[in-house]
Amino acid sequence: MTHVVDSGAGATFDIAVRWGDLDAMNHVNNTVYFRYIEEARVQLMMKLGMVPPSPRTGVLAHASLDFLRSVLYPATVRIEHKLIKVGGSSIELEVIVGDADQADVMYARGRCVLVSINPQGGSQPWTEKEREQIHSVFQG
């Protein structure tokens, strides 16, 4: 289950680790980290109005992740997106996978880039109003 955290900024999401997320080594499989981040990114895109039926959506242009520590069951991970920069039609985000119950525990850190596209699949530049909305979501 995913839920939005009331952290002042609208880019933090908690996700409960499921037993099925574990691998044979009894920790969360590395590919699952990307699914957690994907779920949080979709929630973020909803806050930004970038999901159908909107005429604008986003595609993932880049994703990278450094694994720092294993996630063990039971746990709730906290996915936090921090705005690095807003480009002409993209946003660059730092992604932190931490523990929802222990603020000092960080499982992974990475980066992703989302590109805004139109229904025809071409990049779509941000309007000034959309840029303001992006910044307001991250500033709370």
From TrEMBL:
Lineage of origin: Bacteria, Pseudomonadati, Pseudomonadota, Betaproteobacteria, Burkholderiales
InterPro entries the UniProt entry points to: 4-hydroxybenzoyl-CoA_TE (IPR050563)
Domain of life: Bacteria
Designated name of the protein: Acyl-CoA thioesterase
Organism: Alcaligenes ammonioxydans
